[in-house]
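Progress against Task 2.4 (sequence-to-structure conversion) is shown through the following example record, which the project officer requested during the mid-term review.
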Amino acid sequence: MEKGLPTQEDYRTYDKIWQRVSPGLNPYPEARSQNESAQAMPAPEAAQESASEQALLLLPGAQADPCCMGSEAAGELGVLRGFLREELAVVRGMRALARRAPGGSSRNLLRQMAEDDAGHVRQLQAAHFLITGERYRVTVVLAGQKREPWCDALRAQYHQEACAAFNYARASEETEDLCLRRLFSQLSEDEYRHAGALRELLAETLG
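Structure tokens generated for the chain above:
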């Protein structure tokens, strides 16, 4: 049966014998070096524990560059900022429309939708900060517009909400960032809901 490498205790016994023959001689340096290297290797349990620690560093959130809203999402900043400007314009338009509403129920509905869109602005600003670590402040100045008839104003607001919903859905499909995909999808659903409410409001007005 094949024997294993000599142990340190074996080498100490050999040294005592060789010291009698030739003091100071190391007759097997390579063998001793290999043995010491083998004994210096960590036990399988220690090696497995070290591998587990390294694996933990690869988990999402433990990386220096996170898997969501990190550098991979930096290419979406232009889209994100465009949505921010659009949402701010929608908030102002919806609030102006609410002030014109002929009845209390329609006024409350439009005010609630304006608050929903203001929440979209905050969500997009939070996403921008998560990606860049910097606040993004934007001011939207609306051009002076003539006062449209009520039904025409509802129609214009409907198309704005429906187009926003479509653009969010398209951005959700195109982005490679999972967190942005979920955010854009949620905002798309909100905008489609707003468009539906405006359609119902217009149907009641026309009826």
